[in-house]
Specification:
0% of the residues lie in helices and 49% in strands. By secondary structure, it is mainly beta. Strands 2, 4, 5, 6, 9, 10 and 11 form a seven-stranded mixed sheet that branches. The protein has a four-stranded antiparallel sheet with strand order 1-3-8-7, with no helix packed on it.
């Protein structure tokens, strides 16, 4: 099982960019489908993006499609979330998640390994 540590969050103005990173421990990283979720105060955790084991397939929530890009580097055991044109409604704690298997699922209960989260705050 992998362990996940996110980094790269911060406070930015609307329209800015941030890149989140999620470093995974262990030698089996490439066998996991990876995803990013986010949770704003008082709201449920929601799917943001997922990437397949080889990095060749991706899936995005409609709210971030065209602005965010998920990618992974299996040699570095890291998954990234490039966030452009940030909006105040993107403000949330962002979590990295992993699941064994090939399906790019969007339900948070489909992922069994989680990082501790990193805060992203976008001011207007």
């Amino acid at each position: 099982q992998v362990q996940l540590v996110e980094s790269g969050g911060g406070l930015v103005q609307a329209g800015a960019s941030l890149r989140l990173s999620c470093a995974a421990s262990g030698r089996t990283f490439s066998t996991y489908t990876m995803a990013w979720f986010r949770q704003a105060p008082g709201k449920e955790r929601e799917f943001v993006a997922a990437v397949g084991r080889s990095g060749g397939t991706t899936s995005y929530a409609d709210s971030v499609k065209g602005r965010f890009t998920i990618s992974r580097d299996n040699a570095q055991n890291t998954v990234y979330l490039q966030m452009n044109l940030l909006k105040p409604e993107d403000t949330a704690v962002y979590y990295c998640a992993a699941r064994a298997g090939t399906l790019l699922l969007r339900g948070y209960d489909s992922y069994d390994t989680w990082g501790q989260g990193t805060q992203v705050t976008v001011s207007s």
